[in-house]
Amino acid sequence: MSTVKKRGPLLTAVVHAILIFLAAFQLFPLVVLFINTLRTDAEIKQTPLGFPEHASFINYAETWMKGSYAVAFRNSIFIGVCVIAIVIVGAGLAAYGVARLKIPGRNFFIGYFMMGMSFPAFMFIVPLYYNFSEMGLVNTHASVIIIYAASYIPFSMLLIRTFLVGIPRELEEAGKIDGCSEFGVFLHVTMPLSLPILATVALIVFVWCWNEFLWANTFLTVDDIRTVSTRFYKFVGEWSRDLAKIYTAGMIALGPIIILYLCLQKSFIEGLTQGGVKG
């Protein structure tokens, strides 16, 4: 017993040291990115790793205006909100169906959704572009909203289903005794209890939509409808010689996601851990 007590603090210290090292390793690029947004292009080219002589946020104002990031933010937020709404409704109903309803062949549907996630996007990009072009959906937000929703529903459904399996059936049966229909139980009993996992799914989907590049770069080629990721790609091409503005553009693109995660990390971790334990 005494040996275990002596090794406990040492093991704890080693684990903490490893975690601190990994955290520093992950944060170092972000710290360098942020510091370089406060420097001039000449300073960065002279010393890539260093502190600004006179820290200034002027790069943010210039990059925001020259990069048309106000329009890009509006487009990405609009697309993200629409996709979240579709995914929450579609994946929520599908998850409730396979978790609670006695649907014939529901295991087949679970396998079908899992198989759908295994196919790479490159398999669909050419036929989808042809079909969407025929329907007049190219260079519209509807094109990527449809693609994102279809892509993210399978994973979201499986994640929500894992959470729903752990909800006691007695709560739903009590709702039915009180006169609720099946949909009423889903809406008034199951969904309120599933808010942690729904918040987690919403955060994951929004981050995916914000960072996604392949589909957005293929279907959104007009400046007025570009998302943040494609706007950043074009901005880098236009200002490739100004490193300060490129660093700043990267920080502008990453900033909202970092802030969003820091604000919602408690709900995010709660949803994932409860879903994992209950599954």
Automatic annotation (TrEMBL):
CDD domains: TM_PBP2. Residues 73-264 form the ABC transmembrane type-1 domain. Keywords: Cell membrane, Membrane, Transmembrane, Transmembrane helix, Transport. It is found in: Cell membrane. One of its GO terms (biological process) is transmembrane transport. It comes from the Bacteria. It is a multi-pass membrane protein. GO terms for cellular component: plasma membrane. InterPro entries: MetI-like, MetI-like_sf. The chain crosses the membrane at residues 12-35, 77-96, 108-130, 142-164, 185-208, 246-264. Belongs to the binding-protein-dependent transport system permease family. PANTHER family: ABC TRANSPORTER PERMEASE PROTEIN MG189-RELATED, ABC TRANSPORTER PERMEASE PROTEIN MG189-RELATED-RELATED. This is Carbohydrate ABC transporter permease. The lineage of its organism: Bacteria, Bacillati, Bacillota, Clostridia, Eubacteriales.
